[in-house]
Amino acid sequence: MNSSMNSAMNSAMNPAPTGPETARPRPPRPEPTGSRAHAGSSSRRTRVLAQTSFEARAILRNGEQLMVTVVVPVLALVGLVQADVLDVDTGGLSRIDFFTPGILALAVMTSSFTSQAIASAFDRRNGVLRLLSTTPLGRGGLLAGKVLGVLVVELVQVLVIGLTAVALGWRPDAFGVALSLVAVLLGTAAFTSLAMLVAGTLRAEAVLAVANLALLLLAIAGGVIVPADRLPGPLSHLALLLPSGALGEAMRGAFQQGTLPAWSVVVLVGWTAALGWGAGRLFRWH
């Protein structure tokens, strides 16, 4: 016992050296913050692109949605150009030059509003949105994937409708084509915001009816296919305040005058801000 006490006292009075030879091993060198941030950014981008691919394929592989987004606009274009069933003052333009911009605007509405609203509403009802919002993709990534997926579908629409119009004699100006892409982006932002607002607040069955009815009414009286100034009475003024009329006028301005009407841009940006704010506050994920 005495030897144990002596040993303890010696240890206390003569502590072990703390030089380099007895120092604790250094912890592993942390990975540079920039590398982690870059890896995280790459993984987020990969997830968003994967969701984009899924959204686009879901629309293009669905027979009903393909019919609405691609087939119906093409048939409408051919019918309006080839058949004189709709007597409209074209202002000296050929029928193909007069109707093509409006048909392209209609196509943007079918994919960014009708198709997106219905798909998102049923995804919400089935719990898909709630599930995906809790994954690493997150709500922001999910919404980004949906918007980008719509743009991919619209690219297909523009190519198919544009080539059909060219086959019917349409010869658009290159500058007008570039301006029309700006109009497409503005219209997509506005109508996707509307789709999210409707899909996130109404029951799926109600969205199915509302989205299709709204598309029909806007196509007929919303200044999309036929310019607002050709509509009767108060509709000619009302259409210019609607996102449908603003998109239609923007597309016609791009292809027919080589400019984007300032009022159309203001209306589309205003609707995007208002609808986006409403969707952000009212959207229910389940």
From TrEMBL:
The terms under GO molecular function for this entry are: ABC-type transporter activity
Query: Which residues constitute the signal peptide according to the record?
Result: none
Q: Where is the composition biased (Low complexity)?
A: 1-22, 32-43
Q: How does it sit in the membrane?
A: Multi-pass membrane protein
What cellular-component terms does GO give this entry? ATP-binding cassette (ABC) transporter complex
Principal localization reads membrane
From the Swiss-Prot or TrEMBL record, give the protein name.
Transport permease protein
Q: Which organism is it from?
A: Cellulomonas uda
